[in-house]
């Protein structure tokens, strides 16, 4: 519970392991065999190595593709919106982010009804995702209605004969395919299940996080105005025109310099993230903590950090239940120093986990959400169409980004 002690848990990654727990949970949830060293030597390490495609120069390439795909989808979806169009916000975020992520990672479905095919996959995904907390809690899938059937259908979309038809997939997915081919003991269905798990990891939390970022901006006009002003200023300074017919290009540096956009996004993540950081002791040992404290751990003992307690600590964040879009800005620059009891915190915002369990796709996820908001706010006038409070649905507590308890209508039209 004490954020100053987090560092002692996080740095003891040899004795306090995460991957074994994650491996067991994922193999059960997504229906592939556990990555045992005997059966699949070095598979875990090889898959981990592939995350280099989500950093540095390769991240720029995949982000560029995501930006182009987001713009194409916004244009296809919204170019008719000369007058106000009304939609449900969560459904809208889900539709746009799911398709853009799918096409960016796995490639375009070349059929004439490509959008329809992806929509069908998305609808099944939503049904499966509704059961995810139960699967994570180890409830047998046989007790969860149609979930087993839906999961099987989803996995079949990722069989090799289907994936080879998709055009322009990402290097990260191609590299995963190449690795799976080296393991004869992995059946076609098992490989497809791994691809499906990767899709869930890519969008399962990004979609609700995008919703909350958009929802809080629309609830707070001063936040919306500041972020939009920053976006317009960047377009003017780089001589880029806004509107569905113009392609906007953003470098990583330009995205990083949108301090109000990033602060607003971080603030919504602070309020809606609920990840529990779990570690399992690999041996009997004494965990030494600050101030000569120590905890005697037995092999198999669990330790859990719950950063949401930190995110809602009024000593760290004044009025923690209030959305303050500029909370992470100081003197026009990113604010990275936060204090508790007069001491500087090493960890103050942890929506993506920590240490060895930190989400490897966090940089791409942040870029995707920034780009979604950038296109939305540069192209459209947007406002809430109903005045009701949307609250956090706590059924996923401990598992990532919390979903909204209800959907809410919003309106949009092309900016003049």
TrEMBL record:
This is Cytochrome P450 7B1. The keyword Lipid metabolism applies. Keywords: Heme, Iron, Lipid metabolism, Metal-binding, Steroid metabolism. Belongs to the cytochrome P450 family. GO terms for molecular function: heme binding; iron ion binding; oxysterol 7-alpha-hydroxylase activity. Signal peptide: none annotated. It comes from Geospiza fortis. CDD domains: CYP7B1. Heme binds at residue 359. The keyword NADP does not apply. GO terms for biological process: bile acid biosynthetic process; cholesterol homeostasis. Pfam families: p450 (PF00067).
